């Protein structure tokens, strides 16, 4: 596969230093003092350069424009429908689907609609679901009470808007959200087709945002009183943390390079002045890059020492083995063309992944049973 490996050019990241925490502050080991240095961390070992992945089973079929996926601690998978604006619960054992309800205010158009979803860090006590969606005027973040005791179709409370004003467009709406290990809410946004917004730190477009669960700029953000955590992004739809709480993001390129980036607080990732590896000291270079017809990355996940990246146009699942914040070997592709466009990949614990296809999003070629959730096993 020399052509494939040549396309999957790797670059070293000017990534997170090992002494920084997700908040951007230098971290210390509890109990360490100036006269008592923190104990050395054990050396990181890179996973094997090659691995395998296989589809264990099809969990569910017949999903309409699925986008976000959130596993419930009590069992079940919540899935958002971009175009219908609904959330369904899938029984991961039987595949049975139960509609929770529609999210009011969603205006689906182009790449916009009901996008990412995430569970509250205090879900066990508050039963709140967070969502990122496109409204008639902007992209926004809301939270809703989920009450499974109510009748199907009426299990979602009214959305409470916690953050709004993210630029919307027919394209580049971002939309992935996730709570980090620090309990803060992270959101990947797009520049809505207006390139200049990505470099404007006062704009919310083309950014990774870091917020409190109530929607305020999170303490320790790199820019005072700002929700902006990193900037210079074209369209971020993938967020994942490794085992040492380091953040990675997948990003759509324009014509040449899609990217996997190691995210540092306050980092500038170059768009629109750079696409892929630039070598320009002003910008953070990606740790891996692909030609856009081989990836077009949406969701990413961390499992078994690697980042897993779901490709839409590329119609394949990429594995990027990590050592620290760098790729330790060339990316490896799986399932190429087998299931069509791939939208979301989520760690399912241990050596398992949930993978969501995206052939009913208007750009794919739906087959019988699309769209689906697959359970994968990786080694």
Structural account:
- The protein has helices at residues 2-7, 123-126, and strands at 53-60, 66-71, 77-81, 86-90, 97-102, 114-119, 128-134, 139-145, 160-166, 177-179, 185-188, 207-211, 228-231, 236-241, 247-251, 257-262, 288-291, 297-303, 306-311, 317-323, 326-327, 332-334, 342-347, 352-357, 373-378.
- The strands form 6 sheets. Strands 18, 19, 20, 21 and 22 form a 5-stranded antiparallel β-sheet that branches. A 4-stranded antiparallel β-sheet has the order 1-25-24-23, with no helix packed on it.
- The radius of gyration is 20 Å and the shape is globular.
- A hairpin with a 2-residue loop joins strand 20 (317-323) and strand 21 (326-327).
- With 379 residues, it is mostly beta strands.
- Helices cover 3% and strands 36% of the residues.
- The two termini are 21 Å apart.
- Pfam families: GSDH.
- Residues 17-51 are annotated as: Disordered.
- Residues 27-49 have a biased composition (Low complexity).
Task: Give the SSE layout.
Layout lengths: L1 H6 L45 E8 L5 E6 L5 E5 L4 E5 L6 E6 L11 E6 L3 H4 L1 E7 L4 E7 L14 E7 L10 E3 L5 E4 L18 E5 L16 E4 L4 E6 L5 E5 L5 E6 L25 E4 L5 E7 L2 E6 L5 E7 L2 E2 L4 E3 L7 E6 L4 E6 L15 E6 L1
The total strand number stands at 25
**In CATH terms, what is the fold-level topology?**
Neuraminidase
Structural class: mainly beta
Number of helices: 2
Overall geometry comes to globular
CATH class: Mainly Beta
- Radius of gyration from the CA trace? 20 Å
Our count of domains comes out at 1
Mean pLDDT equals 91
Helices and strands, in order, run as: HEEEEEEHEEEEEEEEEEEEEEEEEEE
Question: In angstroms, what separates the terminal alpha carbons?
Answer: 21 Å
Largest sheet: 5 strands, antiparallel
Q: Kindly report the name of the CATH homologous superfamily.
A: TolB, C-terminal domain
Sheet-strand content, in percent, reads 35-45%
Contiguous low-pLDDT stretches (5 residues minimum) are: 1-36
Domain Glucose/Sorbosone dehydrogenase: 63-363
InterPro entries: 6-blade_b-propeller_TolB-like, Glc/Sorbosone_DH, Quinoprot_gluc/sorb_DH_b-prop
Pfam family, one: GSDH
Organism: Streptomyces similanensis
């Amino acid at each position: 596969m020399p052509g494939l490996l040549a396309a999957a050019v790797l670059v070293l990241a000017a990534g997170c230093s090992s002494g920084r925490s997700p908040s951007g502050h230098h971290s210390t080991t509890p109990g360490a003092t100036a006269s008592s240095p923190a104990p050395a961390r054990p050396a990181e070992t890179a996973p094997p350069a090659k691995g395998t992945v296989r589809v264990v089973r099809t969990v569910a079929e017949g999903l309409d424009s699925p986008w976000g996926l959130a596993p419930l601690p009590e069992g079940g998978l919540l899935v958002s429908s971009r175009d219908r604006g609904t959330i369904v619960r899938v029984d991961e054992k039987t595949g049975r689907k139960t509609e929770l309800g529609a999210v009011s205010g969603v205006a689906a158009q182009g790449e916009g609609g009901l996008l990412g979803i995430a569970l509250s860090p205090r879900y066990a006590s508050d039963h709140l679901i967070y969502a990122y969606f496109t409204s008639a005027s902007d992209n926004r973040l809301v939270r809703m009470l989920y009450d499974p005791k109510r009748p199907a179709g009426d299990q979602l409370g009214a959305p409470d808007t916690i953050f709004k004003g993210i630029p919307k467009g027919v394209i580049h709406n971002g939309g992935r959200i996730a709570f980090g290990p620090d309990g803060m809410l992270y959101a990947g946004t797009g520049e809505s087709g207006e390139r200049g917004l990505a470099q404007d730190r006062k704009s919310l477009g083309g950014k990774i945002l870091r917020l409190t669960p109530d929607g305020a700029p999170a303490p320790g953000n790199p820019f005072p009183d700002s929700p902006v955590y990193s900037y210079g992004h074209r369209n971020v739809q993938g967020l994942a943390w490794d085992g040492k709480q380091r953040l990675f993001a997948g990003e759509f390129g324009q014509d040449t390079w899609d990217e996997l980036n190691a995210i540092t607080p306050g980092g500038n990732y170059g768009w629109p002045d750079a696409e892929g590896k630039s070598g320009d000291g002003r910008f953070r270079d990606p740790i891996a890059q692909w030609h856009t017809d081989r990836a077009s990355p949406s969701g990413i996940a961390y499992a078994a020492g690697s980042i897993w990246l779901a490709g839409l146009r590329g119609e394949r699942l990429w594995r990027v083995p990590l050592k620290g914040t760098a790729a330790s070997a060339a990316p490896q592709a799986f399932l190429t063309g087998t299931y069509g466009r791939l939208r979301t990949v989520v760690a399912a614990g241990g050596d398992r992944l949930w993978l969501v296809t995206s052939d009913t999003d208007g750009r794919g070629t739906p087959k019988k049973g699309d769209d689906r959730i697959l359970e994968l096993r990786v080694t």
